[in-house]
Specification:
The chain has two domains: about 240 residues, TIM Barrel; about 90 residues, Beta Barrel (M1 Pyruvate Kinase, Domain 3). It has eleven helices and 18 strands. An eight-stranded parallel beta barrel has the order 1-2-3-14-15-16-17-18, surrounded by four helices. An eight-stranded mixed β-sheet has the order 4-13-9-10-11-6-8-7, covered by helices on one side. Strands 5-12 form a two-stranded antiparallel ribbon.
Length: about 375
């Protein structure tokens, strides 16, 4: 039995029935749908297409739906985005305003709205705030009831709805948002195989989700919980999280933003070993060409830091004992073309796995 499985994120470039069949024949074992993008009608259509393609090819394919979780984001920005320059003062605000640049203003050269209303309560002067996967870095200088004056450390263009990260900060935002609960009900209704829980911080959060699933799922069905490890707080409770979850995903993207880059490779090794010891599946990501493969909107461009998924190669996770390789696809790079060069191996020919340690737990429930 091939021990390392392939998880493919289904995006605009891969949702057509013909491409889904190609992916399955090429080795896709699990189809991942990201609830951060698209609505329920789109996801229901994708699920139906995946199941139809799997039936046609004659290969079982599990479906993993990924909750958005408490992702912090900026709000709506002026057309074309708002440019901020190193050394300038800017203001993050919870007020309902559009992000704009204010040339010549003495107090702040730009105003950037944020979608999390309690952010001023959760940050303190001296903390770093990263925008757009760390491409833009701000240093908090002051905090008021609604505003957070900052100095720009690394500049760039702030676009609509880009993510915010606050390394090391313990946010008070709930683990499961109002949107997540609606997505969970939809996933249960669709009978998916796995639910990916984003930004897990403790085992108690996993138990809460498992209890809800067990109370609401149809009799005889089983939906497993994949804990995504992408916050430093999760590392502090990692043994308990591994025991509570049905599997873990090493989300190098967000995790690589919040911890020093040099610590990420050895941390991934540790997470893989813990999952193997517990007999739990572990998923690691495959570095792609694009910064934001899920969204499928960004062109390749230089970044001030190593791209968030590129701080770890592909050879070592297989050797270390990871069970599933996450293959992202929303970017417009069609996986069926040239994918062998990128590491999406054909079914039954996934080099380097023959000498892997045992401990594989099948992803299908």
């Amino acid at each position: 039995m091939v021990r390392t499985k392939i998880v493919c994120t289904i995006g605009p470039a891969s949702r057509e029935p013909e491409m889904l069949e190609k992916l399955i024949r090429a080795g896709m074992d699990v189809a991942r749908l990201n609830f951060s993008h698209g609505d329920h009608d789109l996801h229901a259509e994708n699920i139906a297409r995946i199941r139809a393609a799997a039936k046609k090819v004659g290969v079982p394919v599990a479906i993993l739906t990924d909750l958005q979780g408490p992702k912090l984001r900026v709000g709506d920005m002026a057309e074309g985005g708002v440019f901020v320059k190193q050394g300038e003062r800017v203001v993050l605000t919870t007020r309902p305003v559009e992000g704009v640049r204010r040339e010549g203003a003495e107090d702040a050269q730009a105003v950037i709205p944020v979608q999390y209303k309690d952010l001023p309560r959760d940050v303190t002067p001296g903390e770093r705030i990263l925008i757009d996967d760390g491409l833009i870095e701000l240093l908090v200088q002051d905090v008021t009831h609604t505003d957070i004056p900052c100095q720009v450390v690394v500049g760039g263009v702030v676009q609509d709805n880009k993510g915010l990260n606050i390394p090391g900060s313990g946010l008070s935002i709930p683990a499961i948002t109002e949107k997540d609960w609606k997505d969970i009900d939809f996933a249960i209704e669709q009978g998916v195989d796995w639910l990916g829980m984003s930004f897990v911080r403790s085992a108690e959060e996993i138990y809460e989700l498992q209890e809800y699933i067990n109370k609401n799922r149809p009799a005889g069905e089983r939906i497993l919980v994949m804990a995504k490890i992408e916050k430093p707080q999760a590392i502090d409770h990692i043994e308990e999280i591994v025991q509570a979850a049905d599997g873990i995903m090493v989300a190098r993207g967000d995790l690589g933003i919040e911890i020093p880059a040099e610590k990420l490779p050895m941390l991934q090794k540790r997470l893989i070993r813990l999952a193997n010891a517990a007999g739990k599946p572990v998923v690691t990501g495959q570095a792609g060409r694009y910064r934001d493969a899920d969204a499928g909107v960004d062109d390749p461009q230089p970044a001030p830091h190593p791209r968030r998924g590129q701080r770890r190669g592909e050879r070592h996770p297989r050797r270390d004992g990871r069970h599933h390789a996450l293959r992202r696809d929303g970017s417009g790079q069609v996986p069926g073309r040239g994918s062998q060069d990128d590491g999406a191996h054909r079914r039954g020919d996934r080099g380097g796995d023959a000498d892997r340690p045992m401990g594989y737990a099948v992803l299908h429930p």
